[in-house]
Design goal:
Blueprint (H helix, E strand, L loop, with lengths): L2 H24 L5 H22 L1
Helix pairs in contact: 1-2
Amino acid sequence: MSMESHLVELKKKHENLEHRLEAEERSPAADRLAISQMKKKKLQLKDEIQRLSH
């Protein structure tokens, strides 16, 4: 897998996680633990994307 395709894949994962996170936060029965875990994973993806982009 090339660096470019790896970055594209990471960005897709980040975007999908963002959508899942937004949906969970809108839910009346929101799972705070799941939200916290998704935010942590999203931040890890963002950090990796930034690290590989430089």
